[in-house]
Recover the amino acids of this structure.
């Protein structure tokens, strides 16, 4: 569990009048970064509050708009925060920190040899790349006999609820890189994990095209956000639909 919010007896006081151990910066120095709440971490990025609200009050107001879910906050843009009355410098600081976090996750994935052996592996591979996008993207990875990724690509990009996939573009790298199987994934910006009829029809087309080329579809996963506000996925393979 993460720490709870700032002590209630300081709520109506400026941060400069709080006990030193309760001030976010001093608290991090004394107790470490994991001792801070989400709102305290965001408050450090904001640096100062606005009239009538401390930095922590302002941070909590921002988090309240996303149901206290950092995943949803990461999907925002600077313009979204500015629409909530946050100044440009503060909005940029918050968005920059969240984007650095996303890039760290992607960098970690790209600097190690990735072997795919399960649908869960696919979810962990794709979620940092597409889960937080505000539009649909369709991605593919190409696997050798050992399940190692030999190539990856974004196959298509669409709107809010549909993406058109060209099967020729999907399978061309499979032939070039001598893949024995492919795995595909796309995101649902709405967060829903339920596959649409279009998703299922596309999956069947990929399977049939793969049979002609002797290239197996390992899985098709849909990445979204579950009711608890966490990244989650739907797998065609796990649900016996391949």
């Amino acid at each position: 569990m993460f720490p709870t919010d700032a002590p209630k007896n300081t709520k109506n006081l400026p941060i400069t009048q709080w006990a030193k151990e309760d001030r976010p910066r001093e608290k991090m120095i004394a107790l470490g970064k994991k001792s801070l709440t989400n709102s305290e971490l965001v408050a450090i990025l904001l640096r100062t509050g606005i009239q009538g609200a401390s930095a922590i009050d302002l941070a909590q107001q921002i988090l309240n708009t996303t149901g206290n879910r950092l995943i949803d906050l990461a999907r925002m843009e600077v313009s979204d925060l500015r629409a909530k009355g946050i100044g440009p410098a503060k909005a940029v600081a918050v968005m920059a920190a969240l984007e650095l976090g996303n890039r760290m996750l992607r960098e970690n994935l790209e600097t190690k040899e990735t072997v795919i052996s399960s649908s869960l592996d696919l979810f962990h591979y794709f979620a940092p790349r597409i889960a937080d996008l505000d539009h649909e993207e369709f991605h593919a990875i190409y696997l050798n006999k050992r399940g190692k990724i030999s190539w990856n690509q974004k196959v298509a990009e669409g709107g809010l609820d549909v993406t058109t996939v060209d099967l020729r573009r999907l399978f061309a790298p499979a032939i070039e890189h001598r893949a024995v199987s492919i795995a595909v994934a796309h995101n649902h910006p709405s967060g829903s994990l339920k596959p649409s009829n279009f998703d299922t029809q596309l999956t069947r087309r990929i399977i049939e095209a793969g049979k002609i080329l002797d290239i197996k579809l390992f899985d098709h996963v849909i990445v979204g956000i579950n009711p608890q506000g966490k990244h989650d996925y739907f797998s065609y393979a796990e649900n016996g639909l391949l």
Remarks:
- Residues 8-104 form one domain.
- The chain has two domains: 8-104, 113-235.
- The longest helix spans residues 88-110.
- The mean pLDDT is 84.
